[in-house]
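Entry:
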Amino acid sequence: MTDLHDRQTTAAVALLAFACGVAVGNVYFPQAIGPLVASGLGVSPDAATTVVTATQFGYAAGIFLLVPLGDRLPPRRLLVTLLTVTGLGLLAASAAPTLVPLAAASVLVGAATVIAPLAGPLAAGLVPAERQGVVGGTLLSGCLAGMLLSRALGGALGDWLGWRAPYVAAAALSLTVAVLLARMLPSPAPSTQEPYPALLAAPLRLLRAEPELRRSCLYQAMVFAGFSAVWTGVALLLTGPAYGLDATAAGLLALVNAATMLCTPVAGRLVDRHGPDRVSLVCLLLVGGAAPVLALGGVGGGPGLSALVVGTLLLDVGMQSGQVANQVRIYGLGADVRSRLNTAYMTCAYLGGTAGSWLAARAYGRFGWLGVCALVAVLTGVALVRHLLHEFGRVRPLGRPLVRPLVRPLVRPLVRPLVRPLGRPLSAAASSWRVGRSAWRVGRSAVSGAARGRLPSCASGTCAVATCVSRACASGACASRACALGACASRACALGALSAPVIRSSQDG
């Protein structure tokens, strides 16, 4: 029975990973066929990017409006319904006669194809806690595979059969996965019965209450905006006069970045070892460094194409690894609200992606490819400045583990022979100075209290360092309820544990 259950769970997780890849691919393949849509519908390339923007806007709306329902509705019924609606929306998009119906159908497709944010909590509930990391990595690999393969296959299929063919193929895949999920996916009971308005309001309340959530949302929104800007502009660049390639080239360029799937598990281990903030810093530097490398892609030819390969690889690794760090950070805010935390986070991320696609089309139309690269640099700079402002108060703790192992072996042999002979005299002098400073403060407190006509008394007749017997300190009689050595500041002797012949140790108090 246990082996059968394990096999069923493994099959369900594999099916969910495949469903995630298909659903995520529905968001990304329009980026590779933008020029084909422009020529097929007789509109400008800038206008054709509206389809990409509409799909991502719909995806962001679906995350905000539909993902919270994963805690309330049976997950199998919800996933099958969404994939069915996605397939019908893709068929409507393939039959669109003009740009406006195509954009409207793209909004519907984007809103309904939010399978990945729903599959994560469902898959985690199917396995024990010690396997949740493996399951999460499997789903993320499916998402990355869908993101990369959809661009490559969508561009190739569009060149071969026209821009409508990728929509028909995606619709067939979505409807097929819906049938498989209806037959094979288990359906655990919903975890909450909260009303829908309360589910919708929860992410907003969390954004207002959790500064770490807001910070993670800003990081991913800025980085994903740059990511979307690059992949929206690169299709225009490769099919433009600088390269003169077809839409397949953009898909093949995306396929090169399949190495990203190998980097996310490494990023997860680094987050566990060093914390999410350090990994976020490295990822932001990677994305920022990708901008000048990508700018070299505007020169065309072999060198330019090499720069595009390296730059997009840096961009993809930085974006995906940064997402691992951000999600670890927000999941630590509360295990019972992770779905709603993820709703807030993913909504902000895809709103940033939508803005990035829209800004990229305007930047490319006005300034060319360099305008898109400058946009990436500015967006990453905003996130990097915010991160450095957060880390400014923790510079010393952050730097010590890195600097101390390098400096200590060099400095210690030089300093120790000089400091050791002076160690004891300096320590005695420092102790005397501290005792003298404390005595001066005690005296000043006593004089100040006498000038005001009152002296602080020992709390409950007891000094912090010695027991007062009949209003007398162990060191001598208390004058006007003040220690003979001075007034007790803040209900404790200002000297702390006084040395020797007068007061017992502070442990007695």
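The mean pLDDT is 77.
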